[in-house]
Amino acid sequence: MSYITHQTKNIILASNAGFCYGVKRAVETTKKLKAENPDKEICVLGELIHNSQVIKELNDLGIKTVETLPEKGCGYCVVRSHGASFDVFEEIKNKGFELVDLTCPDVKKVQDKAIELVQEGYFLVILGKGAHPEVMAIRANAARHTCDDNVFVAQNLEELKEIENTIKKKSKVGIVVQTTQRAEFLQEIVAYLAPIVKELKIANTICRSTTLRQNEAREVAQKSDLMIVVGSKKSANTTHLAEILVDITKTIHIENASELKNFKNEIQNAQTIGITAGASTPDYIINEVIDSVK
Ligand code: SF4
Question: Is 259 an annotated catalytic residue?
């Protein structure tokens, strides 16, 4: 973390803020692909990252975001860091696109671990948001290796409790975790499952980047009267950061510097202000927030 003293206020900036390596790799590789192939069509299946400014920048470069694949492919189709299911990969190739797989290696590890667990006969519990593309792909790929009702996605303890009777009948239960979840969520689920299942295998697949980001943000929050979390409200990792920090100190979650005007009182009343950002927040947006706070 770095410290900035400005007039009467202290600003603490988390070092693990902004693009993680998986997002950086996805953005840089996609831009490089376009620069090297200016005449070729490039589309990304789903938003490359959850940041509207970056999506606009890519669009201006001629890199289109598509939510569904057209009937016939042309040029490159990029799979973003969240990954995609085996069936989607096949569809991209069958429709005639050249596939560019930018699945983050850490997401790939969760997919592989999920498949390994179901192949070993575990009832698989995926901790994460069912509608999140990363979780959808992990689920779909694991389900190809077992029956569909042997995989369950839970985004909170209550959802898991709803299938308690089913779980108690399973001899082996395995857990994988969406890469950007909170460690506290995993701990809560393990504490619930451990006494009611015969065998529990836990793969803590929260990625290293998320762990470092969350741990450092906690440290910064403990020293701050106000935490500012910068990043899209659609970004899972940014939202989780804000959820963690709100239990430690006063926390606001903004997408960019223009939203700071809504929090003038909070900023004026704080002596020490901590700033962190989600994995899909570009440096220039973080710097604009720092400048505005100053
Ligand atoms: S948050 Fe973690 S898993 Fe997701 S892209 Fe970044 S490094 Fe990869």
Answer: no
Q: How many domains does the structure of the chain reveal?
A: 3
Q: Please report how the helices 21-36 and 105-119 are oriented relative to each other, as an axis angle in degrees rounded to 10.
A: 120
Among 47, 134, 164, 199, the one annotated catalytic: 134
Kindly state if the Cβ of 251 falls inside 6 Å of ligand 1: no
Say whether pLDDT at 35 is over 90: yes
pTM value > 0.90: yes
pLDDT at position 4? 78
> Does the pLDDT value for residue 8 go beyond 80?
no
Q: Are residues 99 and 111 in the same domain?
A: no
- Is the CB of 214 within 6 Å of ligand 1? no
Instruction: Collapse the DSSP code of 157 into the 3-class scheme (helix H, G, I; strand E, B; otherwise coil) and give the result.
Output: helix
Long-range contacts of 161-170 (CB under 8 A, 24+ apart): 161/192, 164/196, 167/123, 167/193, 167/196, 167/197, 168/196, 168/197, 170/123, 170/197
Q: What number does the ligand 1 atom closest to the CA of 105 have? A: 8
- C-alpha of residue 82 to centroid of ligand 1, in Å: 8
**Helical (H) or strand (E) element with 127:** strand 123-127
Mark whether 53 and 7 lie in a shared domain: no
**Distance from Cα 271 to the centre of ligand 1, integer Å:** 33
* Residue ranges making up the domain that contains 50: 21-104
Question: 111 CB under 6 A from ligand 1?
Answer: no
Residue that finishes a domain, picked among 84, 104, 124: 104
C-beta 20 within 6 A of ligand 1: yes
Q: What is the CATH number of the domain that holds 172?
A: 3.40.1010.20
